[in-house]
Amino acid sequence: MVDLRSDTVTQPTEAMREAMSRAPVGDDDYGEDVTVGRLQDMAAAQFRKEAALFVPSGTMANLLALLAQTQPGDEVIVEHEAHIYVNEARGMSAIAGVMPRPVAGEAGRIAPAQLEAVLRTASRHDPRLRLICLENTHNAAGGTLTTPAETAAIGAIAHAGGLRVHLDGARIFNAAIAQGLEVHRLAADIDSVTFCLSKGLSAPVGSLLLGEAGFIARARRLRKMLGGGMRQVGVLAAAGIVALTEMIDRLAEDHRHAQLLARRLAILPGLRIDLASVQTNIIMVHVTDAAWTVRQLAARHVLVNAQDGTRVRLVTHRHIGGREVDEAVSGFQEVASLAAGD
């Protein structure tokens, strides 16, 4: 079976399993789990932020960022296909009580001129505009990345207008590796950032939220409110430490396999891929009928997800190598022939 549905399907490494079995633990809800503390300190140092908070999921991390930086009734600018807006069960409205203001970006990126236009047209009749949410890499756009200069331009406009900036960096290490940058460069001009340990970094569970110490203190209290107060969770944090020390550089391998797979699929009949958008480990394949394509591929032991009615998403990860690329291409070839009536 070739599983290209997501990099969340990655299994923990043997080093992670060993670290988990030996991790010193305590009650994290009391702040006594030393392994969690070490993970949080490591992440804060890597991102050059004051503090970090370990949470069960990226969805909770993003929700905490909203809750800790807004009030119910505030307005939040989001890219119109952003994960925080489309894929997180609308917790931003149902729980945080904020009003999303979607902006259609280019390849998942909101342009400075678009943000300036929103600020110019704000009036006393509108909800209070408080926060802008960015995403790097951008999932729905196909893993496209944002540069430090682009983030800095948005940050400068937002801060000049009294807004804070949150970055959903679920796959921010993919963006950093693809650009040959240290990850802190991609978070230098924002107020809060999240990232996932459980995607390409292969840890079994967990995300981190980072920002100023006061912001993280508020988020810790809110985490309790959401049911995220955890106990001897160092057994999970230990895997996260291995992820941050051993698993970042190898993401380049996932990018190479994505490029190889995309180039080989792009020449098949009935498929369309924007090769320029394949910048990290995600490929969006345009097809006639996504649901039918998913079913046919599954019958050939290739698992992918439908992004919408005419796109399927493929994600490379640690368990996808050259052999798996060959098998995926073979499956797509069979399905393409079937669709063409050959």
Structure description:
- The chain is an alpha/beta fold.
- The chain has 2 domains: 11-246, 3-Layer(aba) Sandwich (Aspartate Aminotransferase, domain 2), CATH 3.40.640.10; 250-340, Aspartate Aminotransferase, domain 1.
- 42% of the residues lie in helices and 16% in strands.
- A 7-stranded mixed sheet has the order 2-8-7-6-5-3-4, sandwiched between helices.
- β11 and β12 form a beta hairpin.
- The longest helix has 19 residues, at 322-340.
What's the structural blueprint in terms of helices and strands?
Elements lengths: L1 E2 L10 H9 L11 H14 L3 E5 L2 H12 L5 E5 L3 H4 L4 H4 L4 E5 L8 H10 L7 E7 L12 H13 L3 E5 L3 H8 L12 E5 L10 E5 L1 H13 L8 H13 L4 H16 L15 E5 L3 H10 L2 E2 L1 E4 L2 E5 L6 H19 L2
Parallel strand pairs: 1-10, 3-4, 3-5, 5-6, 6-7
Antiparallel strand pairs: 2-8, 7-8, 9-12, 11-12
Helix pairs in contact: 1-10, 2-10, 3-9, 11-13
Keywords:
three-stranded antiparallel sheet; single chain; 42% helix; 2 domains; globular; alpha/beta; seven-stranded mixed sheet; 342 residues; Aspartate Aminotransferase, domain 2; Aspartate Aminotransferase, domain 1
